């Protein structure tokens, strides 16, 4: 029999430095999405936004706080510069920052997404507000250096907050290079990413050996395997976790078309399936932030809403996993 354990999460008004109070208990018994019974939660606080407080989680290596809802650029930001879709992204990014968002994840592998994001961040004071995460995705040191120079040009910046090795590609070369850039102040944090279950074992092995600041991994109601290994390991090691593909690249929306939310959703203030899928991701105590991609302002607002209110109980997480198995 597995141990039952309640995870007490604390909330505070981060900007105002107001008093601490209990926020949510995330507890339950074992399941396919089993979480480490010995794990303790990432510290969770909240920062004021127009709609109230967005939940925040601490990056274990520094204690820096990040809003739990971030954004990705894959697909959704790969649009022609100056197009109507690009104009729509101006609204999307404004909704994101004004709604309390801060973390953007991108990659030189996403065609022109870096160029689009760089131009958008340049239109306001967004770059200063943004926790910008990008990646190294090359095979040789020479190619990585050229790619990093190009990333800075496209993103219109001389530094990023997080530099990740994309899908562990040539990680024996990329990780030392990322560490050098960190020592030079070109990135504040370094990380490793993967996006499918077959990469989890390598991701965990390399994380244990190298102890990066961050990992990024896929985790969703229909792909909860990370909760068996990678997420508890990250928690044990004090490594921050970004969750990608929380909507399974959008495929989950086709599955829930015409399907009602569970009866308990309203009690938690969950008003859409997007919010439900994102709440599932951030309810694992190892998770620092989830990075859903959207190019649409109304969907961006919908996604941000998941960063508010109570987390899912362990029983609710199990119910969702069973529903999409
Ligand atoms: N190996 C890696 O490092 C790796 C791999 C995969 C992903 N990632 C990162 O993780 C991010 C997220 O993953 P992802 O983009 O693959 O997939 P995802 O976030 O699971 O799904 C994105 C899809 O969901 C749609 N969507 C977003 N919000 C919605 C909403 N509220 N309602 C309905 N549909 C919505 C988007 O379409 P619209 O744009 O039309 O709204 C898009 O088609 C990526 O952008 C990337 O930054 C990294």
Describe it.
The protein has helices at residues 84-98, 113-121, 126-129, 141-155, 171-183, 200-210, 230-237, 251-255, 273-282, 297-305, 314-323; strands at 7-11, 21-26, 44-49, 52-58, 65-67, 71-72, 103-105, 131-136, 160-165, 187-193, 214-218, 240-244, 289-290. The two termini are 23 Å apart. The chain has eleven helices and 13 strands. Helices cover 34% and strands 19% of the residues. The strands form three sheets. Strands 6-7-8-9-10-11-12-13 form an eight-stranded parallel beta sheet. The chain has a three-stranded antiparallel beta sheet with strand order 3-4-5, with no helix packed on it. The chain has a two-stranded antiparallel sheet with strand order 1-2. It has one domain (64-253, 264-323): TIM Barrel. It has 325 residues and is of the alpha/beta class. The chain is globular. Bound molecules: NADP nicotinamide-adenine-dinucleotide phosphate. NADP nicotinamide-adenine-dinucleotide phosphate binds at residues 72-76, 105, 166-167, 193-195, 216, 244-250, 253, 274, 291-296, 299, 302-303.
């Amino acid at each position: 029999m597995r141990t039952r354990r309640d995870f007490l999460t604390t909330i505070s008004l981060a900007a105002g430095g107001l008093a601490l109070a209990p926020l949510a208990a995330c507890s339950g018994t074992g399941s396919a999405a089993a979480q480490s019974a010995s794990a303790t939660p990432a510290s969770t606080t909240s920062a004021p936004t127009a709609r109230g407080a967005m939940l925040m989680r601490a990056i274990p290596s520094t204690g820096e706080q990040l809003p739990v809802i971030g954004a990705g650029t894959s697909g959704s930001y790969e649009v022609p510069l100056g197009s109507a879709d690009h104009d729509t992204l101006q609204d999307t990014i404004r909704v994101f920052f004004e709604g309390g968002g801060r973390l953007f994840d991108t990659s030189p592998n996403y065609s022109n997404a870096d160029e689009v994001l760089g131009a958008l961040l340049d239109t306001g004071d967004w770059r200063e507000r943004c926790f910008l995460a990008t990646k190294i995705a090359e095979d040789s040191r020479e190619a990585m250096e050229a790619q990093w120079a190009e990333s800075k040009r496209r993103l219109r910046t001389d530094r990023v907050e997080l530099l990740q090795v994309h899908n562990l590609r040539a990680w024996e070369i990329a990780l030392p290079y990322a560490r050098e850039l960190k020592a030079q102040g070109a990135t504040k944090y370094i990380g490793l990413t993967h996006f499918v279950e077959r990469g989890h074992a390598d991701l965990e092995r390399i994380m244990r050996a190298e102890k990066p600041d961050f990992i990024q991994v896929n985790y969703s109601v229909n792909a909860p395997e990370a909760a068996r290994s990678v997420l508890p390991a990250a928690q044990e090691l004090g490594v921050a976790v970004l969750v990608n593909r929380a909507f399974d690249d959008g495929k989950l929306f086709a599955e829930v078309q015409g399907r009602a939310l569970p009866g308990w959703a309203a009690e938690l203030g969950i008003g859409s399936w997007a919010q439900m899928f994102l709440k599932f991701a951030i309810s694992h105590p190892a998770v620092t932030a989830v990075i859903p991609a959207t190019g649409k302002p109304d969907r961006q607002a919908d996604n941000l809403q998941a960063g508010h209110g109570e987390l899912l109980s362990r029983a609710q997480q199990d119910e969702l996993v069973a529903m999409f198995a």
